[in-house]
Amino acid sequence: MAGFDLVVIGAGPGGYVAAARAAQLGMKVACVEREERLGGVCLRVGCIPSKALLDSSELYAAAGERLAEHGVGVGKVRLDLKTMLARKDRVVADLTGAVQTLLERAGVEIVRGNARLAGPNGVAVESAGGKGRSKGAATLEAKAVLLATGSEPVDVRAFPADGKRIVTSTEALAFDAVPKRLGIVGGGYIGLELGSVWARLGSEVTVIEALPRIASTADGQVGRALERSLKKQGLSFRVKTRVVEAKASARGVKAVVEGEEGKQESFFFDRLLVAVGRRPLTRGLGLEEAGVRVDDKTGRVRVDAAYRTSVPTVYAVGDLVDGPMLAHKASAEGIAAVEGLAGLPGEVSYDAVPSVIYTHPEVASVGLTEEQVKARGVAYCSGVYPFGGNGRARCAGEAEGFVKVLAHQASGRLLGVHIVGPRASDLLAEAVLAVELGASAQALARTVHAHPTFGEALMEAAGVAARCAGDG
Ligand code: FAD
Ligand code: NAD
Fold first, then answer.
1. Does the pLDDT value for residue 281 go beyond 80?
2. Ligand 1 atom, smallest distance to 169 CA
3. Which positions are annotated as active-site residues?
4. Which protein residue has the closest C-alpha to ligand 2 atom 12?
């Protein structure tokens, strides 16, 4: 096939956003994707379907528990799982279709098939054929190649997922019946989000986490608050515990767990979800032959500040490279990489990348946790404000949780903002902008916020931090 300025491999949040931006900048672009639907893990089997189920299951839980407090009687609440799953599939179909339209309108050539590097300026594509597509092989010539092939779930070697009883997040987004007992290995993002979905729908959920606490990347105070809240919702946690054996049968999964001091215990689950992290997807990409170096320990593709790999014409972004495996981080890198290619000053502000766990209450963070601030030996101020003191949260009957603002003691500059509570994911945007702009707790505290809004809790927490920091 004739030459392109850029060939992108993978149409996830890293790849499709990069392809669209490159086309906008005037480049001749192709984007190769092996799956039928565009949008990557995030849109097909990640962010989007999980949030659709979190939203639906939250409505189900609210109808059963919280509506009565508002004087709204709905009678006996009934779960129609088939409809809930079909709605989730429709949301995925709509959004993946929208990505296809976006790329088509931008003038990106969408190439279906499995891609591998064929030298520094070539991408070999093999198509298995299928719906309206012919089977065959082609080589695309490119001035530059962007690798955006993402990641895949990590297996536990002792009990690899079978897709039926021992499953990954992909199957746990589509159980055809609510498992009576759901075991989850790993109390990270997926364990807590999908654990919440199925617990709300009626599963008895047990999360087994190797580390001393769940949500181990969150600020400690926030993580502890989340754990208390999820326990109240019926989830059970075994921390400092590992699953050492799991045997699947037609009836379910027998799992042997080992806690502190080697104490073993057996559990029987209907399904066991393995959510112990993801690893970069480099298999079959021909990296070694092409001379693209990967990190020996993490398997991630090594890139410089311009996302260039050890082969100067080959770039990489997203889950494939270092940093948090988050969709918005992948997209920001995709844009920065192609802007750099076009001679623009593309860059990602890694100190202000937000993260959210979409449980109820939600956990949303930007910047350093209190543990990280302490480890750096920085003198700091912490301001905490509970949603119990926020008028709007009281009106909504959503007063659980708090906002925590960490500020540099001498200057008041924001170091981190951590929210556990209602609408945390949306409230965080203001904090991300403040961190990005290098604002102080004082500036946030003096910013007039509409009343009554959830956002006032952020202003109040900043006010508490400001009283100890800088000129507060
Ligand atoms: P991907 O989205 O993985 O896309 C890579 C694409 O490349 C895929 O479509 C794949 O088919 C294609 N591909 C791979 N190899 C080849 C090849 N050789 N040839 C052709 N095509 C190829 N992140 C968030 O920020 N927020 C969330 O709420 C969130 N929820 C998640 C929930 C779950 C259950 C999971 C599993 C992940 C979630 N994530 C979330 C993480 C998010 O999905 C990833 O960080 C994001 O998808 C990474 O984007 P990417 O473009 O790097 O890769
Ligand atoms: P994770 O890294 O978030 O959590 C994995 C957890 O498993 C960790 O707490 C780890 O200590 C624990 N663990 C590892 N091995 C274990 C073992 N043998 N026994 C018990 N516990 C063990 O990984 P995940 O939940 O699989 O999610 C993968 C990635 O996908 C996330 O890191 C995140 O980048 C992304 N994701 C993001 C979101 C979001 O942004 N809301 C949602 C889902 C997934």
1. yes
2. 34
3. 451
4. 186
